[in-house]
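Appendix C reproduces, verbatim, an entry submitted by the partner laboratory led by Prof. M.T., so that reviewers can inspect both the input and the predicted structure.
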Amino acid sequence: MAMNLGPTLGTSDDDEVIGTINTTPLVDVMLVLLIIFLITIPVVTTSIKVDLPKEQNVVREAKPETVVISVNRAGQIYLYDSLIQNPVDLQTRLQKFAAMKPQPDVQIRGDAQSVFESVGRVMYAVQRAGITQVGFITDPTP
């Protein structure tokens, strides 16, 4: 009595593991989600009527007690017109202003071509000194 198991018993290609991922269903799902978002986003953003505040550029007068810190293009820091050697020195000088009652406003003037890191150091020194009123001086648009 003999049994015919076939010519490829044990060497069948049907038992191989497929190592590739079929991405077709993933692409289909992503396209459907994209279409849903494209349809619903304009409805969500324009359906609620909101009266937004109007911008008004008010020129502020500099008070005599206002502290002005400038950062030039090279990244040098100036307190009023005197050069500050490092941000730690600036922080110690600003602590004297922070102790005043009421605290004076601090205005930071940064050159548009300066590296942002130098302005960030000034902001960090002002924060570490405990100054709460900080503003930036910009050129008004014509």
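The first strand starts at residue 67 and ends at 71. Additional entries are available on request from the coordinating office.
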